[in-house]
Every structure is written in C-alpha cells, then in structure tokens.
Design a protein that fits this description.
With about 160 residues, the chain is an alpha/beta fold. It has 6 helices and 7 strands; from the N terminus they run E-H-E-H-E-H-E-H-H-E-H-E-E. The protein has a 7-stranded mixed beta sheet with strand order 3-2-4-5-1-6-7, with helices on both faces. A hairpin with a 2-residue loop joins strand 6 and strand 7. It is globular. The two termini are about 20 Å apart.
Length: about 160
C-alpha cells in the first residue's frame, strides 16, 4: 500500500504531478473527482482537467461520499482523488475516507490545497473552512507513506 498526498496552493502544479505519478504507476487508474460544476467557470475548469487526463482512465464523480468511492475502486487500480479541498467544501468530513485510502492495496494519490498560509479570514465561515481543511490535510499527511508540499511545480517532501 502506498498513500501519497500532494498539498499546495492554487495552480502550484500539484494536480499535474499527481496525474504524472498515477500515469507512471502502470496500473489502471480510477480518478475520483470531488468538484461540481456550480457555475460556468467551474464547468470550464472541470472540462480542462478532463481533457488533461489520459484516455482510458475511469472517472468517478463523487463530491461527498469519498470513503465509499475509495472502497468501491478495484483493488489493483491506482486511485487519484482530486481534490480534498473541494470535498471538504462540499461537506466531507471524518476519518472514514482517510482510513479507506490507507487500507487500499494499490497506489492511492490525493491532491489538496493548503489554505492556512495566508491571513486569517475575516469571517467565521471562511475560518471554519480553513480549520476543517487543515485538520483533514493533517490527517491525510499523517496516514500517507509520502507527502509533498508543492510550490511553483516543485516538490518538498514532508517528513
């Protein structure tokens, strides 16, 4: 079992690195997409991400039931979750998803944003999201065999 987490800022290159890692693994890939197209800009973003993925990858669109999607993925397949940030924004919580990821036999890769490096948000909702995502990121990094902080397309291994 190998759980790999890429965490970084927006447009840092973490999704690109995760796609390359999944592609290079040589196994079938299940891509679990947590984003939903709530507006035209997000729909365009999702379409661009779909176009960047290799042909033949299975896509599972699951904005909330991440643990179930991880458990239902074929045992031999590489699973790429993109991303935990949207999953938390959608209301995803709890340790069941990270436990399901850590229990998989095959490579599992998760992508997430780091939103706690800037100023303290000025409203309670944004602060709660920052805190919730920080806890989720810490839990996934703690369970991971490898965790990387991604800045400008470059990785720094977290230990």
């Amino acid at each position: 079992m190998t759980l790999v987490v890429y965490v970084g800022g927006a447009r840092s290159g973490k999704s690109r690195l995760a796609v390359e890692r999944a592609r290079d693994a040589g196994a079938p890939v299940v891509f679990i997409a947590t984003g939903e197209a709530g507006d035209d800009e997000m729909a365009d973003r999702i379409a661009r991400h779909r176009a960047e993925r290799p042909a033949g990858w299975q896509t599972v669109e699951e904005p909330l039931e991440l643990a179930r999607a991880l458990r239902e993925a074929p045992a031999h397949a590489t699973v790429l979750v993109d991303c935990l940030s949207l999953w938390v924004a959608n209301g995803g919580r709890g340790d069941d998803a990270v436990q399901a990821a850590a229990a998989r036999e095959a490579l599992t890769i998760a992508v997430t944003n780091e939103v706690g490096l800037g100023i303290v948000p000025d409203n309670a909702l944004a602060r709660a999201y920052r805190d919730d995502l920080g806890r989720v990121n810490a839990a996934w990094a703690a369970a991971a065999d490898e965790a990387y902080f991604v800045v400008a397309g470059r990785t720094l291994r977290l230990t």
